[in-house]
Design goal:
CATH topology: Glutaredoxin
Radius of gyration: 20 Å
Shape: globular
Distance between the termini: 46 Å
CATH architecture: 3-Layer(aba) Sandwich
Length: about 210
């Protein structure tokens, strides 16, 4: 009897635990949509688009040299962990006239990782303000057109975030100055949205095979 119990614990229990967690992942809720169909990107010569990509969107402002710490935090904590996913990209909207500063930043980031999915879009000040307002968040840009917060935009152009964050309630963005916010919250939310699309893809492929 004792031997049977031990064998049950050793062989059956792990299977039960696996099925429990597998079921939990399968039925895990989607990352909440906070703003549907955010405004179109400002006019630009760039071919970067929000549609069809999971985008980490940021606003570095005029004084990019003072935002390098934010960029490095994002690069190390988020970008390097997820950039190999096919439909993943970073997009930083910056004022026209910052091209030289951006080039310097990309060079420094390039010494740490492949920056192929770090995209920068140059726009006029009023265009940046209008685009940011289109996110419809409880945040704002400073006088230099920057914010430490970055945002998750899904493939359909919707802003995703949290509706019941333990500290902020509705959480529209993630503070790039806070390694804890990037590690403990943003990384998890990016994983959720990537898993969401992977599961949707598997479901579509399964339906086609029937």
């Amino acid at each position: 009897m004792k031997k049977t119990f031990v064998l049950t614990v050793l062989f059956v229990l792990p299977i039960v635990v696996y099925l429990f967690f597998a079921s939990g992942v399968t039925n895990f809720g989607k990352l909440p949509t906070l703003t549907e169909n955010v405004s179109n990107l400002p006019p630009s010569d760039s071919d970067v688009s929000l549609k069809g990509k999971i985008t980490i969107l940021g606003f570095l402002g005029k004084d990019i040299e003072f935002k390098k710490g934010n960029a490095f935090n994002l690069n190390q904590k988020i970008y390097k962990r997820f950039y190999e996913f096919k439909d993943f990209q970073f997009l930083m909207v910056v004022p026209k006239g910052t091209e030289e500063k951006v080039s310097e930043l990309k060079k420094e980031l390039g010494s740490l990782s492949d920056v192929g999915k770090w995209n920068f879009m140059y726009a006029k000040e009023n265009e940046i303000q209008a685009f940011f307002k289109g996110l419809r968040t409880n945040l704002s840009l400073d006088d230099n057109l920057s914010t430490p917060y970055v945002f998750i935009i899904d493939k359909e152009g919707n802003l995703r975030g949290r509706t019941n964050d333990e500290e902020e309630g509705v959480k529209y963005g993630f503070d790039a100055t806070s390694v804890a916010d990037l590690n403990n919250k943003m990384e998890d939310d990016v994983k959720i949205i990537l898993a969401e699309y992977r599961m949707a893809l598997k479901k579509n492929n399964s339906n086609r095979d029937k």
